[in-house]
Amino acid sequence: MLPMTRRNSDSWLPDIFNDFFDNSWMERPTYTAPAINVIENEHEYEVELAAPGLDKDDFKVHVDADGNLHIEMEKKSENKEGKRHGRYLRREFSYEKFQQTLLLPDDVDAEKICAKVEKGVLNVCIPKKETVANPETRRQIDIQ
Predict the structure, then answer these.
(1) What number of CA atoms fall less than 13 Å from residue 126's CA on the CB side?
(2) CA 74, CA 50: separation in Å to the nearest integer?
């Protein structure tokens, strides 16, 4: 069993509330990198990028000449403070701008890459090139 520690101060509870509601002393970035999953099966790779609240117009996806997949997203947030009955004490659940570059493997068919946004997730389907099994090129040689 782990030993329990206790603060010596009797005023620890107000400090927790102050830390929670007033975090102005802590510098926070203005963006959050979304979670990315990469899945592979025998026919394709699939990239899933968490994008809650974003739609297809917030994304740009392209492949450059070097074979890199670029995913960019930008959400221009509107000031919706007027609709609230208070002010934000802490606001973190919005993305402003994000860019990710993924080096594509050699077995990718870059011409067939497609993307869609569904239920808060950007899905990028990256098909693999179809491999054609080479027929055995064995030829019998007659011995004379």
Answers:
(1) 25
(2) 13
